[in-house]
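Predicting holo structure, zinc ion bound.
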Amino acid sequence: MLKDNGQVFRLEDYRESDYLIPEVTLTFQLGPAETLVTAVLKVERRQGVAVTAPLTLDGDGLVLAGLAVNGAKADATTFEASPDRLILRKTPHAARFELTIETRLSPTKNKALMGLYVSNGVFCTQCEAEGFRRITYFLDRPDVLSVYTVRIEADRKEAPLLLSNGNPVEKGALDAERHFAVWHDPHPKPSYLFALVAGDLGAVTDSFTTASGRAVDLAIYVEHGKEERAAYAMDSLKRSMRWDEERFGREYDLDVFNIVAVSDFNMGAMENKGLNVFNDKYVLADADTATDLDFANIEAIIAHEYFHNWTGNRITCRDWFQLCLKEGLTVFRDHEFSADQRSRAVKRIAEVRALRAHQFPEDQGPLAHPVRPRRFREINNFYTATVYEKGSEVVRMIRTVLGQDAFRAGMDLYFERHDGQAVTIEDFIKAFEDASGRDLAQFSLWYHQAGTPNVAIATRHDAREGTLTVEIEQSVPPTPSESRKRLMHIPLAFGLVGPDGQDMAYESAEGATVEDGVIHLRKRHHTVRFSGLKARPVLSINRGFSAPVTMAASSVAKERLFLARHDRDPYSRWQALNTLFTEALISATRRKRGGRQLAFPDELVGLAVELAGDGALEAAFRALALTLPAEADIAREIGENIDPDAIYAARMALLSTIAEAGRGDFAGLHASLHDNAPFAPDAAGAGRRALRNALIEYMALAAGDPGPAREQFDTADNMTERAAALTVLAHHFPKHGDSREALARLEAQYRDNPLVLDKWFQIQAMIPSSDTVELMRELMGHAHFSLTNPNRVRALIGTFAMANQTAFHSADGSGYRLVADTVMALEKHNPQVSARLATAFRSWRSLESGRREHARLVLADMAQRKNLSRDLADIVERTLA
Ligand code: ARG
Ligand code: ZN
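Done. Tokens:
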């Protein structure tokens, strides 16, 4: 593990490598305890580089077992090897030479899950960002592209399956026990896309014929006996492949495409060329064990990794500062894919909720960074919501600014111009500028400037003149190391909603560029005057969340209620309702802290009940209308001096008020949404279940007992409804016998299914009670919990820290200590997962003073520990700064 040495990497220090490695041949003699790796590198000195230039290869914890130059054992005086570097002081005179490097690894000892490791008996690799250097010494940087040939040798019983990138070339026996396979990937790629898998796995197979007629063999490898649960992933893969052809003109480019599911994985999945490796959570699903959310995630992530084949692999990043070049763009592509497969409006609302929940707090706290950062200590800490989700929003805005046709032309030009290259965000933007003839200089600040812009809006209608005047002002709050911000180009989609609910046409608009239903803010302040409006319209602004900004609108509740009922943009309807809920909850929180009675506006409560029952709307949308802002959402909107207990009480009170108001309707509606058809994971069915699940919580609250939830838990034929019912039982009736019994039943029934047990851990980790810290310590001792498996850690501790506001923020600091203890325990073997968990503290400064002090002490205690990993030191120090 790399200990922190305080080194900071800077974008402006980028320079090309002196050497290139056009070809690599790797031989793996696999053994769980010991693996010998022989790397033969064809090295090339770049033109113009002095022959005396040393060649420095990256390593991380490596043991050099042998080194030869052009086939001859290297002279010990010509090189220097350490665990993290191999320096050839003297290289051959010729511009091209060959290096043979042998390294010895211990895959079973690798619990950091970077490089080559063993998961449930399967050898697998994870190299992004800098894991390849844990396998062999290399120029481990994304702008060094090589053609790989990989030979794998292993025990035939232990590993009948031998996979690497590209196409299979050869396989055969070595002796009675061992066999081998050779793979060749003709597409030059950076080392972070290298992958190897060897083990004993089952498969589902299929085939796909590309638009131009290439036949591709598809396979998804999973543990034996789980093949049927990979069917949905396979279906998603084929739909993704077709969609990328139709929507982006991108075809697949190898003869095979393999996906492997492993159970120990630091992240969601990885796009290695021709050999994607997945967290099994994002492959395995069936009605009995997975929820609709799991199915939707599988569809999205299968698509995401597949789409990387063009946006990431064929065109990759010049350096890691450019991570959003592939991630933001690929998230945008997977969002569009899911929107096309399901309901566009509901998908958009889910995206915005996620952005607000994960990216806004990041952008508004100590870990804020631009979508394209300029410095980092540890790149693993930059796989963030800002790079991914805000990065996607920025691409979406490019489409909004240019329009669909120019956007597509820009993408086409990007693919054509940069195929096979490692490029920058500037190259990406330039393709859109060149294809459209538009200047995106101001727009590009979205990549370079951190922070969530705020837009303040006030409207004035003059009936006599028939004008609507809209005052708009932008501001960008300061973020760490960027105190002065420049003005941004903010595209705000809008509509002027007339009394009949239809968008009103206006005669002219002055004061800002207004085109195709979008107001383009470029200055600090714009006064936009719309004319030809005798009747007073209601301004619907930032439709579809066209810009990732916070809004301070002067509009009154009456206008919001109107938009929630009548806006033709479903996203805006939801937004209006959500803002009303948030405002009501903020004011209730204040009253609670002031010891006053809580009350909620009747129109708002009535509207929620009305929308839930409106059969003209999609069920999934109606479910969202019944979903109150989460406690963390309310906290974020309050922004300072936060008391999570008061927020919890306010939210519970609104839940109960709606439950009471819906008492007459909800049970009947819940029953009517049930059908006897077998479970299908499609959007319509998922929507019905989402609505039923929203209703069951209110029904249980109205009943004041677990009966309705217990009934749903007992009768559900799918995990979506079962898990939701269990959540209601455990969270609202934690002490009740029914709840305990239901929890025990799920545990007993799915004892052997870790992914279901994760849900069981998760539900309990979210119980809003001061007893939960105690329960957590107990659950960490559960036979199926393990600190070395990232899914278990995320399900139990991650959920507690990120999604249990009252218990994590226990007033006595015990929740913080629990999480900090876990961070420190993880840090020893898996710094990446440890550092990620530590980000749970990022909003500590916005807490009320007692909790703030507890959090500060816990952070300071972590900061002063000796020998912290680079990952954790980076997070803790930035959080405290
Ligand atoms: N490239 C992968 C994806 O988004 C994620 C890799 C994450 N790597 C990391 N070191 N955190 O599809
Ligand atoms: Zn990605």
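The pocket of zinc ion (ligand 2) is lined by residues 304, 308, 327, 330 (CB under 6 Å).
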